[in-house]
Protein: RIP metalloprotease RseP
Organism: Corallococcus terminator
Amino acid sequence: MLQNLGFFILLLGVLVTVHELGHFLVAKACGVKVLKFSIGFGPKILGFTKGETEYQVALLPLGGFVKMAGDLPHEELSPEEASRGFLAAPPWKRALIVFAGPAFSLVFPVFVYFFVFLGPQETLSTRVGMVSPDMAAAAAGIRPGDRILKVEGEAVRTFDDMRDAFVGKFERPVPITLERDGQERVVQVTPERSSEVSPVDTVERGMIGVSPYPQPPVVGVLAGSAAANAGLKSFDRVLSVNGVHVQDEAALYREVAKVPEGSPLALSVARLEPVAVGAVSGRVPEVKQVSLPRQAGEGPAALGAEAVDLYVATVASGSVAEGAGIQPGDRIVAINGTPLKSFNKLATVLNGLQAQPFTLTWRGEQGERTEKLAQAPLKTRDDYGQTSAPLVFGVRPWNYSSADLPPVEKVTIDLGPVAAFKEAALIVPKIIGQMVQVLGGLVVGKVSPSTIGGPIMMYQLAAKSAEQGMDSYLNLMAVISINLGVMNLLPIPVLDGFALLSAIWEGIRRRPIPVRVREVANMVGLALLVLLMLLAVTNDVTR
């Protein structure tokens, strides 16, 4: 608790210090007398005076301020202070002083990100862990274990690099250079268009259907197949091929490729067998030995089996699927006459149909069946005891537990000072643009006010990011600093943006905004900020 509070105070303290330091240094450079530099509000905890300025740390760490001589109208000043007062300074100096705070808040993240990016970084490699069977990569012959080297001639080192390389590339053939078994080859892939919509922007990129996360080699087995005749069953997890351990699908492809067609394969598989202890029943894994001749094809096909994706693992009690006679182990074949290649495609079609009837074809122990069905409400209860009755069909695919998933391959990227600074200088303007778009979305109603957070949310974020490591904590610090800089540039009274606008106005019109107008504007601005803070705190408490 105290540690989390410390991270929160450190976060605010650094951000406030950087922001106010901008005002302070530029005010000093412009000859304006600075009376007080304060980190925090309220009673002073500690402080000292050096020269003409008092420096202090105050009790409430939710902000700070720089008190300059003559920054309030009608303020009584000595002749020396009056000549060096803020409002007595030329408009261009006042504009610089006011702008310096947000500018420091926006530049500071560049240095933060520089240290985040500098040095060795572990990130996901371009090794393909899983290939979606109904998308472009599978159609092009890409398989688990392949390493993607180039996208349309552009070298890629990380999975994020590869994703970014597909921005704007879709619905046309794209050459991909990949490495398989130590040899390079080029395949033509036609990505599907995918729009990633967020409150900030919309990015259109090509999707080819690969994931960096490897899958365990779990097989689906058709009745009467070579795999079934040899004793394999659906949902068997292959542990080894001819004595060689296989930890993922890529290893299965690699090992069966070494064996000529017709030669014997000795498999060790893990199979979940039902057990009952008194009134409690469950399943425990047992290791089985299976032998069969190597079949034609690659991966699961070489075992006479197929990918487990379209095999039904569970059927919801009382569902339409149960009423139709679908059982665990059955394979979904087609919907409305269209053959299916993945459970995701089935879910997408069903989601679009809602309660409309559809024709489903599936294969079980008694052979293939086709029936006309429709999704229906099914009463469910969530972990919080809330009940609902969504439209469901009632079948689910095989789900892997986190313990089943093989380790994902990572690559170390070592950025030197120049490359790290370049990355930092590129990411900050991007985040600034996103912040501006979010603010615009709040104004026009595209972004919900419920997304606004206050001190409680900042405390939670600081604590969580600190637990995740220094890089995560520094990233949060940079993002909040950018938010602070952008917000303070808004032309709202009592914020830096309004003071900047006033200085620019006076520089152009050659006369200041009337004092009465300024006072009323400040009152309105303060009221707006209080309402905004109340909304933020309300959102925090509601969360």
